[in-house]
Amino acid sequence: MKFNTKLLHGKAGRNTLDGATLPGISQVSAFYYDSAEHLEKVFGNKAPGFAYTRIGNPTVAAFEQRINEVEGGTGAVACASGMAAITVALLNVLSAGDEIIAGSGLFGGTIDLFKDLEAFGITTHFIPHITVEDIKPVLNQNIKAVFGEIIGNPGLDVVNIKEVSDFLHENGVPFIVDATTATPYLINALAAGADIVIHSSSKYINGSGNAISGIIVDGGKFQWDKERYPAMKEYSKYGKFAYTARLRNDVWRNMGGCLAPMNAYLNILGLETLGIRMKALCNNALTLAKTLEKLPGITVNYPGLESSPYKTLVDEQFGGLGGAILTIRAGSRENAFKLINSLKYALIATNIGDLRTLVIHPASTIYLHSTQEEQEHAGVYDDTIRISVGLEDVEDLIEDFTQAVKNI
Ligand SMILES: *Cc1c(COP(=O)(O)O)cnc(C)c1O
């Protein structure tokens, strides 16, 4: 099955008991059983079933299974948000004294999270780009994970997953990727070599901007050495399911960032149209970027443009689609604000992956808590505008952005 067919006819979508085309919404907290013995078995993983929604829920499980099938993982665990997913994905394997390497062009919330982890003895080395060249000089025995966004938001640098993961595996380090902006439509990150894939499914997977959520998918191939990862010691008996087993039985369930059943259902609806939406969104983004690039007074950053250093990688890795986000620089903060305020269709909002085109001035919003140096490393300048391109007719977007640019 190809991508869109699998979304609609994959095995994971065919497991409803009553033949319903979509799972029901199990909007409950708890599940009862006919005897104390039965509930004991469910609690001890000796009988199938659900006990309490924080630990498992049929609608959430249906969402997890669908994503897991699309990504080709050994298990997927859904979370209340993308940030909850990133947090537990890391805490699942890290201990005090461990170090992480991360790209500088990351989502602002993730950069803030890495600072929070310092209180728990986990330190992060930020490097300009997730490349073998940049990783090599900072690699040491304490580095227990490398974290990168496949297409940085909003830096828009693109990671060569195969090259980086090959190098990391030679050094016994797992590659954890945030695939939010690339989505499984542009790249199967596990097949390309990544070990753990995380999505803020609030964005393109949900697709309509109607629910916050996150998901972690394990490829099951990384060998968690018991000495280097003491947290994984007890779970190594689960083999390729070890990482997911620890999440489910330990960190994820105990930190409590579970996904609500209703939101899981909304994500399943979104997931089914991910392929057609991404294709249309990426085509709109490329057409808009090409048009804006010709206008005087602004510069455009989009990985799919001929002028981008990532164009070859976009062609090789993503089949030519460069994602649906672009940034423009308007010359000054004043110009950036004026441009934003002149737009008729694009909504001024802090989100990506909506059906509607959204714009934001990152320096004064998402990166408010970052230093100027951190902002610039993330590709955020005082005159930067991020555009999350939507599904409007591209002629209307071109007309709208062109008049706004002329206005400055
Ligand atoms: C939005 C986003 C997150 C955080 O996800 P939430 O669902 O908002 O918690 C993480 N990474 C990237 C790349 C994002 O765009």
TrEMBL record:
Belongs to the trans-sulfuration enzymes family. The keyword Zinc-finger does not apply. Its EC number is 4.4.1.2. GO terms for cellular component: cytoplasm. One of its GO terms (molecular function) is cysteine synthase activity. Gene3D superfamilies: Aspartate Aminotransferase, domain 1, Type I PLP-dependent aspartate aminotransferase-like (Major domain). It catalyses: L-homocysteine + H2O = 2-oxobutanoate + hydrogen sulfide + NH4(+) + H(+); L-methionine + H2O = methanethiol + 2-oxobutanoate + NH4(+). Keywords: Pyridoxal phosphate, Transferase. InterPro entries: Cys/Met-Metab_PyrdxlP-dep_enz (IPR000277), OAc-hSer/O-AcSer_sulfhydrylase (IPR006235), PyrdxlP-dep_Trfase (IPR015424), PyrdxlP-dep_Trfase_major (IPR015421), PyrdxlP-dep_Trfase_small (IPR015422). It holds the Pfam family Cys_Met_Meta_PP. The keyword Acetylation does not apply. CDD domains: CGS_like (cd00614). GO terms for biological process: cysteine biosynthetic process from serine; L-homocysteine biosynthetic process; transsulfuration. Its cofactor is pyridoxal 5'-phosphate. The modification N6-(pyridoxal phosphate)lysine is found at residue 203. This is homocysteine desulfhydrase. It comes from the Bacteria.
